[in-house]
Amino acid sequence: MKALVFHSPKDVRFETVPDPRIENARDVILRVTSTSICGSDLHIYNGYFPQKSAMILGHEFMGVVAEVGPRVRNLKKGDRVVVPFPISCGECFFCSRGLPGQCERTNPSHYGPDGTKNRGGGLFGYTDEYGPYDGGQAQYVRVPYADVGPRKVPDGLPDERLLFLSDIIPTGWTAAEWCGLEGGETVAVFGCGPVGLMAMKSARLQGAGRVLAIDPVAYRRDAARRVADAETIDPSAVDPVEAVRELTAGRGADACIDAVGLEADHGLMESVSNVLHLQVGTINALRTAIAAARRGGVVSVIGVYGAPASDFPLNEIFDKGLRLRSGQAPVQACIDKLLDMVVAGRITAEDLVTHRVPLSEAPAAYQAFNLKRESCLKFVLKPWTEHVRERHESQVEADELDSEPVSPVLDTGYLPPPAVF
Fold first, then answer.
1. What are phi and psi of 26, to 5 degrees?
2. Does position 324 have pLDDT exceeding 90, yes or no?
3. Cα(193)–Cα(257) distance, rounded to whole angstroms?
4. Between residues 391 and 299, which one has the greater pLDDT?
5. What value does the mean pLDDT take over residues 395-411?
6. Rounded Cα–Cα distance for residues 287 and 317 (Å)
7. Rounded-to-integer distance, Cα 76 and Cα 69, Å
8. Model-level pTM?
9. CB 197 within 8 Å of CB 172
10. Dihedral of alpha carbons 35, 38, 41, 45, sign
11. pLDDT per residue over 124-148, tens digit each?
12. Quick one: 185 and 288 in the same domain?
């Protein structure tokens, strides 16, 4: 099959790799109809999360079930599903408490209670430290614990309406939910990428009275105004903390959401500090969110931080009496409610899609997304197009593919796969 493979920082290649196979009775093999590039994929692309061996990237994907393990009884060949990005066994201490990202069974090599040297549960396409599991930026992917994770979705809706239930919709929803909104609050969101935009939309749906959007990139601020009716702040032009306070009678926002994580912009002195403290990235966005929150407020951290940080403002958190929530979104715990909302049209993410390209163009898409070129917000990648209609070494009979339902043909250049490849 064809896949997008990470080899080293900023070196991702579209190439032929072995087909996945059933390895456990609870596996399915999924034929991927749509996948996307997520902002947290850039953490691997830029080397913030080290990965020594080749790995198929991608944790935001959906498709059609092609093969089913013998213990998977809730799915059958031909079912159309969307897959949560955390891999959850559904049975352990943490999974039974609605914390799939902390699953005790899905990351046997690197799991542990110590979050400084161990990791949590398994994730698709997110380095050896979280599995390792190949991701969904491929024509096919093995989905472990498929009797727990994948959700069947309606055939009548296009992929782009459903795809983002795998990550950015539940992640944005969780970011807002952690704010504990009761109605009328001012929520400041740091970062106007796809997750930040979904957090703004979700905050609106959960009762926020005002949404403030902070981002140095003009087209991303434009998107925040368009999709979330947000008031925007350019941190390269004004002090964002003072700007938030000016808009909130001097107090600060009731809740702040850090949707940036460790790749916030930083200068020379912080780069030097990172070297001295063996630190990667920066906590600028988090530090600013803490400063912009009012006393007694909430800081919700959904941006990814994968390494320790020096100069953490614990004194400020303590003095202001802030509540802080952080972590991976518990997708399996909220996806069913959000799927109902998507089907009903109450929450949408397809308006964030700016680019639709075949998987063969993924290396260029990564570069554009990383450099914020072409006003890109969200790249949707199509593994099955005329560009990659090739015959596999392991042949699949025409009638097998013909019997599988495929996603509706969109006005995106997407073509269903051929009968033989």
1. -100, 10
2. yes
3. 12
4. 299
5. 35
6. 10
7. 9
8. 0.87
9. yes
10. positive
11. 999 999 989 999 999 999 999 999 9
12. yes
